[in-house]
Amino acid sequence: MTDSFLVSVPATTANIGPGFDCLGAALTRYNRFQFTRSSESSPLEIVVTGAERDHVTTDSSNLAYKAFCECFKHMGQTVPAVHITVELDVPLARGMGSSSTAIVGGILGANALAGSPLDGAALAQLATAIEGHPDNVVPALLGGCRLATVNDQSQGVLCEVPWHSTIVPIVVVPAFEVSTAKARQVLPQQYSRADAIYTMGHLGLLIRALETGNGDWLRTAIGDRIHEPYRKSLIPGYDSVAQAALAAGAYGVTISGAGPTLLALGSEARAGAIAQAMAETWQQHDIEVVDARPLKIDTVGATVVERSQDEG
Fold it and tell me: Domain check: are 306 and 273 in the same one?
């Protein structure tokens, strides 16, 4: 049995417009996790590289390791001693699914070291159980844009949403954080019937707009009344940045995940100008921008590659 695997997991953008807690897409930016079975006396060693490495724990509280352990527990197996190397490229606590990369990386590393007894459906179910909701972990695991819901028996139902190649996701990442817990706290406990109907109509239109590449539909469909009107209060300069994106040619702007990263959707021809306009507007509010760039939709999802010991 192979003793070392490299797991690559894409960043994600979730809650896309009216798709709160059910719609997400994988992006072409990655965290990588190498899991090597250890024969040393220490049961755990974690090494982290990347610009934000000092913000990641290297003991048993590490999220990738906790997911790794949870997967072995789920399989009914003993957790082995392991050496984990983490290569960070997805910004932490910015609404791009960094925690989901750790969860997916952990369970895939465990599954691989155990001989891959769990299939994709079982892995998606386990990742969702650990994360609490599917909108980030499902596209991180499977790639593409995914709609996730449950049936009347509380079983997960996953649906791929075609994303037209002419629609470019543009992410702009400011140099501050918004905690997911705080982003949840600002949401109301109840919504009006009008807001529910608005959301249903807009989500249906968004799915068709993404599939067809219809920019006019996107301009309407990206609107939301469930999370964005409340969460934007946690993001200084939101309205100005969104307006700058629209003026530069974006079809629409929404909060990526819990924020503060903003996601704009635009054409390939305007993508660079949109990213620049958003970054410059935030900087005019004295807010540093750590990244602003067009990305692509990752269509593959997380990958697992067998590694020899000397490659580690």
Answer: no
Q: Is 157 helix (H, G, I), strand (E, B) or coil?
A: strand
How far is residue 281 CA from its own chain's centroid? 25
- Taking residue 56's Cβ as centre, other Cβ atoms within 10 Å add up to 18
Beta bridge partners of 7: 33, 304
**Among candidate residues 193, 239, 201, the one with its CA nearest the CA of residue 221:** 201
Contact 18, 55 (CB under 8 A): no
Helix runs in 213-267, H state only: 215-221, 228-231, 238-247
Instruction: Indicate whether 156 and 197 sit together in one domain.
Output: no
Are residues 144 and 180 located together in one domain of the fold? no
Residues 130 and 175 in one domain: no
Q: How far is CA 42 from CA 59, 81, 135, in A?
A: 11, 7, 36
> What is the domain range of residue 10?
4-161+298-311
Instruction: Note whether 153 and 106 are same-domain residues.
Output: yes
Q: How many residues does the chain have?
A: 312
Which pLDDT score is estimated for 309? 56
Q: How does DSSP classify residue 80?
A: P
Which of 37-51, 172-186, 243-257 tops mean pLDDT? Answer: 243-257
Cα–Cα distance, 75 to 77 (Å, whole number): 6
